[in-house]
Design goal:
Blueprint: E1 3-9, H1 12-19, E2 28-30, E3 37-45, H2 48-58, E4 67-77, E5 84-89, H3 93-108, E6 121-127, H4 133-142, E7 149-153, E8 155-161, E9 170-177
Helix pairs in contact: 2-3
Family: Belongs to the 2H phosphoesterase superfamily. ThpR family.
Protein name: RNA 2',3'-cyclic phosphodiesterase
Keywords: Hydrolase
Length: about 180
């Protein structure tokens, strides 16, 4: 049963620029830069037949122009129980429309509806229990100033993940060009 998600790949030069923010946070399990991505829709563990239906549904994605993605800061998910350090992505209209289309297509393929609000981001680290709110606040206050990073892409990727690791390595199973 594959664990799947759709996402936007992060080019090597952007990943290299993000790597400067990795390190110095106790309790962080850093994501390999080659595995950085913007998740559009996490599908979870799906049966092979559903995976095939997802690929078929995603191939019906409508044509659209290339998408500009801008990363504009650092943040922490989890509040009192920090669980991830991320680079935030500007939720511009084209990105939000693409994510909504992904949701419609995978639901048509038999995937359960997503219950969480879409917050576009690139995960830089998963955080263990020893990454306290105080430690993460200190990390953010001492991190280098975040200079916005922008890139353009023209496709969605269907990724698979090993369920035992939670954070890569990820495999690109299929790509779906915008045009």
């Amino acid at each position: 049963m594959p664990r799947l998600f759709t996402g936007l790949a992060v080019p090597a030069e952007i990943a290299a620029a993000l790597k400067v923010y990795q390190g110095g946070l106790p309790g962080a399990r850093w994501i390999e830069p080659g595995d950085f991505h913007v998740t559009l829709r996490f599908l979870g563990d799906v049966e092979a037949t559903v995976a095939d239906d997802v690929v078929e549904a995603l191939s019906e994605m409508r044509a659209r122009p290339a998408l500009t993605v801008t990363l504009d800061g650092l943040g922490i998910f989890g509040g009192d129980r920090p669980r991830a350090l991320y680079a935030s992505v500007v939720p511009e209209a084209g990105l939000m429309d693409l994510q909504a289309e992904q949701e419609r297509l995978v639901r048509r393929a038999g995937v359960e509806p997503e219950r969480r609000k879409f917050t576009p981001h690139v995960t830089l680290a998963r955080l263990r229990r020893d990454a306290t709110p105080e430690a993460t606040a200190m990390y953010l206050s001492q991190a280098p100033v975040f200079t916005p990073l922008t890139y353009t892409l023209d496709r969605v990727t269907l990724f698979s993940a090993r369920d035992s690791t939670g954070g890569g390595p990820y495999v690109a199973e299929a790509e779906f060009p915008f045009a």
